[in-house]
Amino acid sequence: MTTLEKRFPENFLWGGAIAANQAEGAWNVDGKGVSLSDVVRGGIVEGTADECVIEGRDYASHEAIDFYHRYKEDIALFAEMGMKCFRTSIAWTRIFPNGDEAAPNEKGLHFYDDLFDELLKYGIEPVITLSHYETPLHLINEYGGWANRKLIGFFENYCRVVFNRYKNKVKYWMTFNEINNLHTIPYAAGAIRISSEETKLQEIYQTAHHLFIASAIATKLCHEIIPGARMGCMLSLSILYPNTCNPDDVFAAYELRRRSLFFSDVMLRGYYPGYVKRIWKEYRIEVHMEAGDLELMKEHTADYLGFSYYRSTTFKAGMPILGHTGGIMGLDNPYLDKTEWGWPIDAIGLRYVCNELYDRYQKPLFILENGYGGHDEVDKNGNINDDARINYLNLHLVEIAEAIEDGVDLIGYTWWGPIDIVSAGTGEMRKRYGFIYVDKDNEGNGTFERRKKKSFDWYKKVIETNGEVLFEKEEVASFNE
Q1: Which conformational region is residue 86 in: left (phi greater than 0), alpha (psi within -120 to 50 degrees), or beta?
Q2: Is 10 a catalytic residue?
Q3: What is the pLDDT of residue 283?
Q4: Does residue 369 carry a catalytic annotation?
Q5: Given 3.40.50.2000, 3.20.20.80, 3.90.930.60, 3.40.50.720, which CATH number is that of 4-480?
């Protein structure tokens, strides 16, 4: 076996990831405005979005885990774990409550000053998403969301403010979270309310174009204001397999995969690929572009590709494809075990994706979300023995090491999420991802006390050995027994 130094580089960024809307709470504190996430009940994926906050209704993001007031305690735990980086998002509505103001909210800027300072105090690198399903609600209600080109200017203003404010604190940035989810959750990913099924693809691709231009402008600004900073794009890229070796299934899965990779093709290569032009022709889609748009996209591509990976899915010819990216579960795969929530566990699929993406783009990759959502219980001694989470983590990290050995340039790995947060899928607290337990239930009851799970010490050991523990057979056996 090759040496571990060749598997995980010395500068590998081990960390964790959350989103502001799933953790901060304090939804209307210190001048914060209402974001699209603040009016969702039941999770951004499976829930229902109101047009405004309705009194008496339960919105999990309003309180979340109160990271806004408890971040120092939580960051101290992240530091104890040894984390090298921490991915989170800036809530756009803390900086510009409505999104279209000329001047920013100083209290919002000050909060992130303090948050980033606290991370840097412990040597933890901030990795920041500019928009993680947190578009100001006013921009949807007043302008129609990202279907309206005016949002590009509002986003540019927001980016210019935060880049100038945090230019000495943040080196790693991303524009939009899981931008390719426009196909499946257009409200969250594009801040748009689809008019009808007949116009859905037209609206999605026009919105995508505006997001591409906004990303290119943000990349340009970032490089100008923060020399040496790296601006990435972020996609949901869990792997898609053909359901059988029938050539029809293979090509159908290939076509569907490209509907996700279309977004990274544009943002990393800088131009619209030929296959999407065929889609536009077949569905009579006309994307309005302005002079200079294509040049801007070409000249200001992303520096790295960040992505989420949780599971694999399968697809066969004849399944619905219009506006579809493979679904959450897809067809059953008899070769894989599943989590408590029915998600297939496919660690080698992560190695596959790393190689697929690096072969395609030859740009650095950053695994920004990977995690195990399960039900955790505190035993009579106050312990939380989450062996299933440890096993999931071990399996995936071993395959990441193999991907690095394959030649993949990987910046780092951030587990989703290192502390229990509100589930984006279902809006629950019961579906827990963290190495740190938060005493809060689905009904909002609890003390918010933080408690280490068994996985806390396991990930700590992974980090302090730079992955060496993954290849010590006696250690692996100890948590699989």
Answers
A1: beta
A2: no
A3: 94
A4: yes
A5: 3.20.20.80
